[in-house]
Structure formats: C-alpha cells, structure tokens
Design goal:
Elements: H1 4-21, H2 35-44, H3 49-58, H4 68-81, H5 87-116, H6 121-139, H7 141-154, H8 157-170, H9 174-184, H10 189-201, H11 208-216, H12 224-236, H13 242-270, H14 272-299, H15 306-330, H16 348-352, H17 355-371, H18 373-379, H19 382-386, H20 423-429, H21 431-477, H22 482-492, H23 499-510, H24 516-521, H25 527-530, H26 534-547, H27 551-621, H28 627-639, H29 648-675, H30 679-719
Helix pairs in contact: 3-5, 4-7, 5-6, 6-15, 8-9, 8-12, 8-13, 8-27, 9-10, 10-11, 12-13, 13-27, 14-15, 14-27, 14-29, 15-29, 17-21, 20-29, 21-22, 21-27, 21-29, 21-30, 22-23, 26-27, 27-28, 27-29, 27-30, 29-30
C-alpha cells in the first residue's frame, strides 16, 4: 500500500519543480487576467502605454538576469509608475537600444567611408557616446515615469486628506470617506484610491484599513507626513468622545500642512547650488567653448566637423542638462503644486489640437526659407540656374570699405568651395532658429491662451468662494434651509466673481423648482456646470451630503472647508515666497544671460572667420604689402586654414537650436519646482520664455555680427 509519505514525495517534487520554473516577474509566464481587471488596468495607466509597448517588443528578444539591487530599484519604480513591464524587459530594452545605436552608427560610418573615402574617428567616438547616453537614459525611464506619477499624485495629498477629514467630521465611516475622496479627487491619486478598493474586492485584503496601510508603504520614503495624517484619521475611529474625535481629524490636516511646508523649506535651500551648477556646466561653459571651435577645427586639420558640434551641443549636452535637472526634480517633496487636471478642462480639445503647430509653421516658414539661402547657394545648383555667381565680395556689391572678403564665404582661394562662413551667411542663418522658435511660440500661445484665461477665472472664483462659503455656512448655521441660504448669499455677494454661481443656484430653485442637488449638479442647468472648479464642485457635494445629517452639520462642514482652504492658501503663499528667488534667478539666466552671452560669442566667431577670410584673399591677390609680411601671413594662414574651419553658418544654427532646447528643459524644471507637474503651465511658460530668449538672442547676435564685422574690416583695411 502506498503511504502518505510516498504520495507527498512523489507530487511534492513535481510541484516544487513547477514552482521553480514559474517566475511571475520574469515575463516568461503570461498572466491571464479577467476582463474587468484588464479594463481597470487600462483606465489606470493610459499615459505610459507607448513605453510599455517598446519594452514588450524589444525587451522580449532575450532574458537578462538583473542584479538584486538593480532589480529592486527598477521594480519599485515600475510599481510606482503603474507600468505593466518587468525589470528584465527594461534592461533588455536599454541593451537593445545600445546595440542598435552602435550597429546603426557603424553601418553609417562604413557607408560614408566606402562612398566618400572619409575615415572619421570622431564620428565613431560620438556614436559611442550617444549610444551610452541612450542606454543610461532609457534604463532610468521607469524612475522618471515614477517621478512624474509621484509628482502628480503628491500635489493632491492635501486635498485628499481634506476631503476625508471633512466627510468624517459628520460621518465617522472610513470606507465612505475614502470612496468620497476617490470620487472627487483627480487622477492619479484617485486611481490609487480606486486600486485600494479593488484590492479589497478581489480578496487581497480583508478590510479597507489593511489595503490603505499597504498602499501607504509606497510613500514611506517620500512623504511620512501623508502616512502620519492617515494614521491619525484611522485612530479617530477609536475615539469615544466626539470632541476628541474631531480634534484628531483636524490634527491630521495640520500635520500634512506643516510637513509639506518644512520639506519645501529644506528643498529650497538645497536646490540653489545644483541649479547654479546646471547653469554653469550646461550653459556658460559650452557657450564659451563654441568661441574657440572655429580655430580649434583648423588646428586639428579639419577633423572637427560641424555635425560633430551639432551632436555634442544639440544632443549630448542637452541630455546631460536633462539628466541633472531630473535629479533635482526627483528630490522635490510632494504635497505642494497645481492640483487641477488638464484633461478635465472643457477646453482640453483645443490644447490637443495640432492645428496650432501648422499655423506656427506657416508663420515661421518665410524666416526659415530666408535662412536657407546660403545653404542653397553652397550645396545646390540654384545660383547656376539663376545665372548668378555663387559668391561675391563686399567690394563687388559696392561696399568696398568691407574689403575683398566674400559675403557668403563660399568660394575660397583657388575656387575651392567651403563654408558658408561669410558675414551675410551668418546673418541669414539667424532666421532659421528664429523661424523654428516662432513656430513653437505661436503654437504654444494658440494652444494655451484660452485655457489659461479659463484657469485664471476659476482661480479668481475660488479665491472669493472661500469667504462666500463662510457666509453660506453662517446662514445655514442660523437655522435657514439651504435653499433660502443660497438666496440670501446671492444678495450679499453682488459685485463679486461668485455672484453668478449663487444666482444660478437660486434661479434653479426658485424659478425651475429644482431640488438643491439638481440646482447644483443638473447636467444642463446645474451651477457647477458653468463653474467647473474642483473646489466648487467638491464643496457643494459635501454640502449636499452633510445637509442630510442636519443643518448644523452642513454649517460646520462649509465653515471647516472655508477655514482649511484659507490655511492652504497661506501655506502656498509662503512657499511661493521661498521659491521666488530661485525661480527668478534661473529665469533671468535662461532668458537674459544665456542669449546675451551666446549672441556675443556668435559675433566673435564671425569676426574671427571674417578676418582670416580677408587675410586669405589678401595673400592670394598679393596685397600683403611686403615679403616679410607676406611670409608672416602665409605662415599664419597655413596654421589657420579658413577652408578647414567649422562654417559659422552651421555654428550659429547649432547655438540657436541649443538655446531653444535649453529653454524647453529649464522651463519644465522651473515649473515642476514651483508648481509640480503642470503640463499647461509648462507649455505656456515655454512659449513666453522662448519669445524673450530668442528675441534677445537674435538682436544681440545681429548687432554683434554687424559691429564686430565692421571692426574686423577696419583692422584689415589698416593692415592693407
């Protein structure tokens, strides 16, 4: 007879073998979820599906064993960002990106070598650096997405605690308070709260409290005040005395407010030095290095080409600046920032409309075409079709005081084509980054103008709505029914931004015979429809719920909201004062000092090239004025061959695009430091800063080119 031990040994080894082969985190075993969970998961994380698809497609070519430390770090970021991928897929995707970039760069290098015979070690070196940057950047993507999710969620911490506290002050039910908060909060924190309920429904946890406690462990390293506030709320459930229970609830809100303020105070002190380093390493030093690049390129025999400079200054350095700024953003504490969700705005379709880019492109196109004239004259047969020369000297067009140097700097000694390096080509090149900047400026203004006006109007209403709520609470506290209290408040708020709201509610009740709830939330005539503010909608929903408990409960709820919102506004004003110095300093560096410095550097590069080009023309024509001077000039020109220089035309385009990229990166950083992740504000501020920076850069560069070119022409004339 088979014993129990025999059965356990037989099937135990089989089960153990199956368990060893099963690894849910490796992606080898496909999980099959119910349709309801798949739908819930799709609603939770629609934003990152593109990155997930890339990881799923390229990340499944092979499997890499990730170290325990890196695996834990990546898995933690994946969990926070709500991504449906594994650490192995992230590492494999980054590795595949590294190999594909290296392989593609080597193929391109080989093709250029076989076709043109040019062997450039610099190109291989740049390809290697670029592939390394892509690998590092893609491997950190889950952490960046986690930071983005965390910033959006953390900006709604204070409202979340506020909603729970207000609800529990009149109804001591934690489950209903959480449901109320999840219904009226905006994503992503609302999605997190829904996940808390989902985990209870599917049996992962037996109570809401257990599910909440598990969720709060994710904030342990980021926001202890959020956890402490929740624990105080939970502890209020066990208080037998009503006064003591309400005091504990109020304490929870004060805890999170004080915690947010203390952490932001420390952050503002620690962030100044890193931002200064970014400005020096990402703007000042690269811009100064550009000034010596034309001379350096000739000293190394033309080994440094313009496309090398483009790769360094338009790809590698912006990546470095982006990496440094993201490190600063990851350290930003939560609980403070813009809480409104752009997707909920009625005008969101206008923001998503890409027609604004078409409008901006059409307005910027004439400037870009004007800037392409030197390119067409240098690299195409357009001048031959038009029957004109590729290049003319200044004296040939009637400006003899400018010397014999070429206006486009295209035809060198012996008829060799080089450049474009002439002063006129350099001036025309300014219109290319200007045209691109105009495209973004017009597009961003078109996309955000109406949305910003609507947001400002909402904020103006919310600013006055706080005092109006206090008046409404007082009326209800005097024993007036809520319907009559609205009529009284409508009379006392005449001339304010909230007058229209209370008037609509009163008209719906008095003239249309609606109930209080319908007067507020009717889909066609409800007052909340015409004032789509989160504070207004939530306050009125709390009013409707609390009126069911009695007039005194409703009055206390409204007055509590009014008091708490005033406290939050005070905290926000103090935090804005703390951040004002940092934001203003960095904004002035970005929109004033960087364009000013870059414009002067462009003028200096143009002057150097003009002088060397003029000397080449003089030496070639024998106008050097003596054998000794001729030998000296010839020796100098042998060291600084103007035909081997990086064309100032391309150099200026690289600098112009670099300014545009820096404005994009630093504006996003400053908005996140000040307001959290606010897409609308980032877009609007980028357009405004780009307008200021590029206008100043264009004016300064144009003035520098003209002024320094004239100085160079005078110097050449004196030498002649």
């Amino acid at each position: 007879m088979t014993s129990t031990d025999d059965i356990l040994n037989k099937y135990g080894s089989k089960i153990e073998k199956q368990m060893k082969n099963y690894d849910a985190s490796s992606g080898q075993t496909k999980k099959k979820f119910s349709k309801s969970y798949s739908k819930f998961q799709a609603e939770m994380m629609p934003e990152f599906s593109g990155y997930e698809k890339w990881c799923k497609s390229l990340g499944n070519f092979f499997t890499l064993k990730v170290g325990e430390k890196d695996k834990a770090r990546i898995a933690r970021a994946i969990e926070i960002a709500h991504l449906n991928i594994t650490p192995s897929e992230v590492v494999v995707f980054s590795t595949m990106l590294l190999f594909l970039t290296l392989f593609g760069g080597i193929l391109l290098f080989t093709g250029i070598w076989l076709i043109t015979g040019a062997f450039s070690m610099m190109f291989l070196f740049m390809t290697f650096l670029f592939s390394i940057f892509l690998f590092l950047y893609s491997s950190k993507t889950p952490e960046r997405l986690a930071m983005r999710w965390r910033l959006k969620a953390s900006s709604q911490m204070v409202p979340a605690i506020l909603y729970i506290v207000i609800y529990m002050k009149h109804t001591s039910n934690f489950e209903k308070a959480m449901a109320f908060a999840s219904e009226h909060l905006q994503p992503p924190l609302a999605d997190d709260f829904r996940k808390i309920f989902w985990d209870v429904e599917v049996g992962r946890f037996s109570t809401i409290k257990d599910s909440v406690d598990n969720y709060l462990t994710g904030w342990r390293d980021y926001s202890l005040e959020f956890i402490e506030a929740f624990h105080l709320i939970e502890s209020s459930l066990y208080e037998p005395d009503e006064g003591r229970r309400v005091a504990v609830l109020e304490k929870s809100l004060q805890v999170i407010l004080d915690g947010v303020y203390d952490k932001m105070l420390k952050y503002t002190h620690n962030v100044k030095a890193p931002l200064t380093n970014i400005y020096m390493l990402g703007i000042v030093l690269p811009t100064l290095a550009i000034a010596i690049l034309p001379l350096m390129s000739t000293m190394v025999g033309g080994a440094i080409k313009w496309y090398h400079v483009l790769l360094i200054f338009n790809i590698l350095i912006p990546f470095l600046v982006l990496y440094m700024t993201e490190k600063i953003m990851m350290e930003r504490p939560g609980g403070y920032g813009e809480t409104s969700l752009l997707e909920k705005n009625p005008l969101y379709a206008k923001y998503k409309d890409n027609g604004a880019y078409v409008k901006g492109f059409l307005l910027g196109l004439p400037f870009m075409l004007l800037g392409l004239i030197p390119f067409l004259w240098r690299y195409t047969d357009v001048p031959l079709w038009l029957g004109v020369a590729r290049d003319y000297s200044w004296s040939e067009i009637g400006l003899s005081f400018m010397g014999s140097s070429k206006i486009f700097g295209i035809v060198g000694p012996g008829g060799v084509l080089y450049g474009p390096s002439g002063s006129l080509a350099l001036i025309l090149s300014l219109f290319i980054p200007l045209g691109v900047a105009i495209m973004f400026i017009v597009a961003f203004k078109t996309k955000t103008e109406e949305l910003l006006v609507a947001r400002d109007s909402y904020k103006e209403v919310e600013k006055e709505f706080t005092s109006s709520l206090f008046q409404l609470g007082n009326r209800i506290g005097d024993g007036l029914p809520a319907e009559i209290a609205f009529a009284k408040t409508a009379e006392s708020t005449k001339g304010t931004a909230t007058e229209g709201f209370f008037r609509i509610v009163n008209e719906n009740i008095q003239q249309l015979g609606m109930s209080l709830e319908r007067a507020l939330f009717d889909l066609k005539r409800g007052a909340v429809i015409f004032y789509p503010s989160q504070l207004v909608a939530t306050s009125m929903r709390i009013l409707v719920e609390s009126v069911k408990k009695g007039l005194k409960v409703a009055a206390r709820s409204l007055m509590s909201i009014s008091e708490y919102v005033k406290n939050i506004k005070k905290i926000n004003m103090r935090l804005n004062d703390l951040l004002a110095d940092i934001v203003s300093d960095m904004k002035s560096n970005m929109t004033f000092l960087a364009p000013l410095l870059s414009g002067i550097i462009v003028g200096l590069s143009g002057m150097i090239t003009t002088i060397l080009g003029g000397l080449s023309e003089m030496f070639e024509s024998g106008a050097s004025g003596g054998a000794v001077v001729g030998e000296n000039i010839g020796g100098m020109l042998g060291m600084f061959d103007v035909t081997l220089m990086i064309p100032t035309y391309w150099l200026q385009i690289v600098i112009g695009f670099y300014i545009i990229e820096i404005v994009f990166i630093l504006t996003s950083t400053l908005v996140i430091i000040k307001s959290g992740r606010d897409v609308l504000q980032t877009t609007a501020e980028t357009g405004k800063n780009l307008k200021v920076a590029m206008t100043l850069y264009f004016v300064v560069a144009l003035g520098s080119i003209i002024g320094l070119t004239l100085v160079g022409a005078v110097a050449l004339a004196g030498l002649t």
